[in-house]
Design goal:
The chain has a 6-stranded mixed sheet with strand order 1-6-5-4-3-2. The longest helix is centred in the C-terminal third of the chain and has 17 residues. With 189 residues, it is an alpha+beta fold. The chain has a domain of 113 residues: BirA Bifunctional Protein, domain 2 (2-Layer Sandwich), CATH 3.30.930.10. The protein is built from 7 helices and 6 strands. This is Translation elongation factor P Lys34:lysine transferase.
Length: 189
């Protein structure tokens, strides 16, 4: 696994750096970049930022996923199902593809965009059927980070999933004080 943080980098600058690295390491073409919204519109003909659960289930039915989607009540789970089954198979085949601006509800450790509050400064890059890396314009507010983490654990508990430990649980962890303005990414598993 490779992980790094770049002070004073926004998400776009980090995407460019990762793209340059991939071209050197993989000897591939420059990457394509699509917003999450553009990817859904191109491959599923639906706007993921405005579609309601009924509309998402209709698209799932076209992908023969009704058996899963019809009983799913969580909108983000429906979006993730559609992304994995309806978008991922079509991207990054011949060259890497960056997907950026995931819904704000899927921000994880990313900042919410100042240009569009509906999306997060988060990206993933795919190539030949594999997610190679993900990255964020890092959330620097420790209080907001803890609130998101606690909300995620409540969702996990409601679904019967195990709780996750907050990354600032250890004493003196730098995340508890907040990060400087930076973007970071990780690759590998």
């Amino acid at each position: 696994m490779l992980e790094w943080y770049r002070p004073c980098y926004d998400m776009y600058r980090l995407i460019n750096e990762v793209d340059d690295l991939l071209q050197q390491v993989l000897d591939c073409q420059p990457a394509e970049s699509l917003s999450y919204q553009q990817a859904f519109l191109r491959h599923l003909e639906i706007d993921p930022l405005s579609a309601d659960k009924t509309q998402l289930r209709e698209v799932a039915a076209k992908l023969d996923l009704s058996n899963i989607a019809d009983t799913e009540e969580d909108r983000d789970t429906l979006l993730q199902l559609l992304f994995v089954m309806g978008v991922e198979p079509h991207i990054g085949k011949d060259r890497p593809t960056f997907i950026y601006h995931f819904p704000a509800s899927q921000a994880s450790l990313a900042q919410i965009s100042t240009e569009d509050h509906r999306v997060a400064e988060r990206f993933e890059v795919y190539y030949k059927g594999i997610e190679l890396a993900n990255g964020f314009h890092e959330l620097t507010d420790a209080r907001e980070q803890r609130q998101r983490f606690e909300q995620d654990n409540r969702k996990r508990a409601a679904r019967g999933l195990p709780q996750q430990a907050h990354r600032s649980s250890s004493a003196g962890c730098p995340w508890e004080a907040g990060l400087p303005d930076c973007s970071g990414r990780s690759a590998g598993r």
